[in-house]
């Protein structure tokens, strides 16, 4: 589960693949390709999908029968989310995923463990049927249009919604938008121009 930085993910993966193949071939005195095909990737859209992808990844060693418990797999990032003991875990951006569960780190870790312990039946990587089942959230442009339409029916403009003084009406509309779009709290917060806390409470 990678975030793209200054270098594209495809370039990063190429560098990793070439470097590892060179190391492996030297170590075992062999030549030629090591990997059969190029890596496959899938864009993560929205917090619910990121949570499910994380659970899917962390549970793969258990599904493969390599270990019995998620935390037993030596090469998993799972422990980096549960404990942050050394500098080497800085490779993992714990905050990005844990903050979806809670702003409080201890609470977030508890919820992360509970969530990861649940079975993940979704199929990832290029499975259109699986993507439909996930009910992926709308992209910003589509979400903005949906929000605009819902607010317009109630006599509000998107630009003015953040200054709405009627909290009951505001919360009712936020709830309606959330239910209609399945958009993550962060995305709604960004589109509506109001804080995540207000959206979450609504």
Description:
This protein is mainly alpha-helical and 202 residues long. 57% of the residues lie in helices and 0% in strands. It is built from eleven helices and no strands. The protein has helices at 9-27, 47-63, 78-82, 94-101, 105-116, 128-134, 140-153, 158-161, 167-181, 185-192, 196-201. Helix 7 crosses helix 9. The radius of gyration is 21 Å and the shape is elongated.
Which structural class is indicated by helix and strand composition? mainly alpha
Main pleated-sheet profile = none
Number of helices: 11
Helix fraction by DSSP (H/I, runs of at least 4): 55-70%
Terminal CA distance reads: 30 Å
Rg from alpha-carbon coordinates = 21 Å
> What is the H-and-E element order?
HHHHHHHHHHH
Q: Quick one: overall form?
A: elongated
Offer a quick outline of the entry.
The chain is mainly α and 202 residues long. The protein has eleven helices and no strands.
How are the SSEs placed, and which strands pair?
Layout: H1 9-27, H2 47-63, H3 78-82, H4 94-101, H5 105-116, H6 128-134, H7 140-153, H8 158-161, H9 167-181, H10 185-192, H11 196-201
Helix pairs in contact: 4-5, 7-9, 7-10
């Amino acid at each position: 589960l990678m975030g793209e930085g200054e270098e594209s993910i495809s370039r990063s993966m190429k560098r990793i693949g070439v470097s590892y193949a060179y190391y492996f071939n030297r170590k075992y005195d062999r030549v030629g390709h090591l990997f059969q095909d190029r890596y496959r990737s899938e864009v993560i859209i929205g917090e619910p999908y990121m949570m499910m992808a994380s659970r899917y990844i962390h549970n793969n060693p258990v599904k493969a029968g390599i270990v019995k418990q998620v935390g037993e797999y030596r090469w998993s990032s799972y422990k980096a989310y549960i404990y942050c003991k050394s500098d080497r875990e800085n490779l993992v951006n714990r905050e990005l995923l844990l903050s979806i569960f809670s702003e409080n780190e201890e609470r977030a870790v508890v919820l992360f463990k509970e969530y990861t312990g649940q079975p993940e039946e979704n199929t990832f990587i290029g499975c259109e049927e699986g993507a439909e089942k996930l009910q992926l959230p709308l992209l910003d442009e589509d979400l903005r249009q949906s929000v605009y339409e819902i607010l317009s029916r109630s006599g509000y403009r998107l630009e003015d919604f953040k200054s709405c003084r009627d909290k009951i009406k505001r919360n009712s509309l936020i709830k309606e938008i959330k239910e209609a779009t399945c958009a993550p709290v962060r995305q709604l917060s960004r589109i509506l121009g109001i804080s995540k806390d207000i959206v979450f409470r609504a």
